[in-house]
Amino acid sequence: MKDMLKKYASTLIIALVMVIFIVCALVIPEDLSQANVMFWAGFGFILFAFVAFGAVTVVSKRDERMLVSSTLLVYSVPVIYLVVTFILNICYMTFGYSADNKVAAFLPNVIILILAVIGMVVVYKSASHVSATDKKIEEKVKVVKLNTLKVNTLIYKVTDPDVKRSLTKLKDAAQYSDPMGVPATAEIEAQFEQCLQVLEDLIASGADKENLLQAIHDADSTLKIRNELLKANKERY
Question: What are the extents of the domains in the chain?
């Protein structure tokens, strides 16, 4: 229960502010019978802005793709929409209390709403793209860490100092390689993982020093080719 309250605290605050606004809007005016389209249109659009902002907060909380930075970006449009709508329509409700101008009441609000919807679509797509990119980076980094861990584990399985030294160099090379591969490097990256598997099998079978050093050399050469290919493809763009 506490976690739910903490997660949706911002939504609950907005709901509370909306209730306070409703009470004030319906209690402060001395005679609502004199209120006309300017008042009720302003009242309605402000309520809609509150509800829209609350809906965005709920959706953003439930969307696992939204990172903190992306969520703040998504919040920016409804916050601006809420503030602009609130200021505009408070003026309508205060100074145009008994006015009967439907164009003035609805046209600015509709234009602001359309701009907000367009902005929300653009911002949400941008945030989703950022989140998807970050997820790809995270997956790539996990692969690099896994390969580094695999080589590091192999170091402790051998006793020959030369083999240990070569494995340590291979581990460092894998650890500091650029994790962000491109489609052109997918095949060579798969070959590198196969080289590591061959190396692991050789160590498990008790292969001699010469075969182990050759397997390490093959893995290191494959990794170097991958890094050079990656560099060439990135320089092209």
Answer: 2-134, 156-236
DSSP state of 29: S
Strand ranges in 110-206 using DSSP code E only, listed in sequence order? none
Share of the chain above pLDDT 70, in %: 80
| Rounded distance between C-alpha atoms, residue 224 and residue 191, angstroms | 12
The residues near 124 (Cβ < 8 Å, ≥ 6 apart) are: 74
Q: Which of 78, 85, 86, 71 is nearest to 116 (CA)?
A: 78
- C-alpha span between 72 and 60 (Å, rounded): 9
- DSSP characters over 64-85: TT--HHHHHHHHHHHHHHHHHH
How far is Cα 139 from Cα 135, in angstroms, rounded to an integer? Answer: 6
Question: Residue 8: how many CA atoms within 13 Å on its side-chain side?
Answer: 15
155-198 pLDDT, tens digit per residue, is 888 989 999 999 999 988 888 887 776 777 788 888 988 999 99
pLDDT score of 4: 59
Q: Which of 124, 210, 113, 117 is nearest to 163 (CA)?
A: 210
Q: Encode 68-77: b = buried (16+ Cβ within 10 Å), e = exposed.
A: eebbebbbeb
Q: Is the pTM of this model over 0.85?
A: no
Q: What is the dihedral of CA 68, 178, 192, 220, to 10 degrees?
A: -150
Closest listed residue to residue 219, CA positions, set 138, 136, 163: 163
Q: Quote the tokens at residue 127.
A: 């945030």
Q: How far apart are CA 38 and CA 43, in angstroms?
A: 8
What sections of 28-67 are H helices per DSSP? 37-62
Q: Which helix (H) or strand (E) holds 228?
A: helix 209-236
